Amino acid sequence: MLPPVRVIALISSVCFIVILVQLPTIEAYVASVKKHDVVPVFGYSTEQRIVRQIRKEAPKHYIEPINARVDRIWKAIPGLNGREVNLNETIRRTLEQKDRKSIQWVYREIPPKIQLKDLGNEPVYRGNEKKPAAALMVNVAWGTEYIPQILKILKKEQIKATFFLDGSWLKKNPEAARQIIREGHEIGNHAYSHPLMSQISTAQMEKEIGKTQALIEKHLQVKSKWFAPPAGDFDRRVIKMAAQFHMNTILWTLDTVDWKKSVSPEMMVGKVEKEIVPGTLLLTHPTDRTVKALPQIIRAGKNKGLKWMTVSNLLSSKRVK
């Protein structure tokens, strides 16, 4: 039989162990060991506290992707990628900081299940309304006088636009078109002789689109992804014919009406300031009024938090960086 003193000591030791095991630090240690983590016995290290915080807050940064859809009014509307936290990169970059006072969130994009290409042959009038961006469309069918000035403005503002070229214009002005390419802008197809596409035969449609596409490839060594019908005139045959040349039919969300001499630069700017929204495809032409209004038009978009980009970039599902 053990002496009373040893019995008391033994009971005290057992009680101490029970209490110790129930301490939060020990419970955390046991849980971490089960997960094969390495944790100090008497508390979490700074690194582990940061990792736990990142894992806890990451779900709050999740954004669900938006599928492309066919709208009753706007027709084909592209989808928009969602996002989720890239845990490994976020942890690595955060721990690489000297002070580690802020989490360096790194994201990966999640593509939607339904993309624009999945919608079939439908015209496009706008980008996704949740994408804080706009695209400048410049339809070119006459003259070269104002092209250099427009390019100069775009270069100064550090934005890229999409120029839709009439084939007969391109044939006469290949060097002006090559300058557009050298400046980093996108090229689209605007038919050959600026006809009302719905009023010509299917055979003539093929010539109008095909001839210009061939000239674009010959002089500029690029392939257009977008067909902008002259005057916005089209029917289902036009959409189908453009698709045969691997192009979507593109219209516009907002028209500056700069081709009308009665429209002043101030009127153009006022209209854009009032009506531009996320996803806008803005239609312009190379006129003297456009040159005067363009800097303020660009500023109007930026003032609304929109990033200017090409048609292809606007209609992609990629998120704005």
From TrEMBL:
Molecular function terms, GO-annotated: hydrolase activity, acting on carbon-nitrogen (but not peptide) bonds
A Pfam family it matches: Polysacc_deac_1
InterPro entries: Glyco_hydro/deAcase_b/a-brl, NODB_dom, Polysacc_deacetylase_ArnD
Gene3D superfamilies listed in its UniProt record: Glycoside hydrolase/deacetylase
A Gene Ontology biological process term: carbohydrate metabolic process
A GO cellular-component term linked to this record: membrane
NodB homology domain mapped to chain residues: 132-309
Protein name: Polysaccharide deacetylase family protein
Biological source species: Thermoactinomyces mirandus
Lineage, highest ranks first: Bacteria, Bacillati, Bacillota, Bacilli, Bacillales
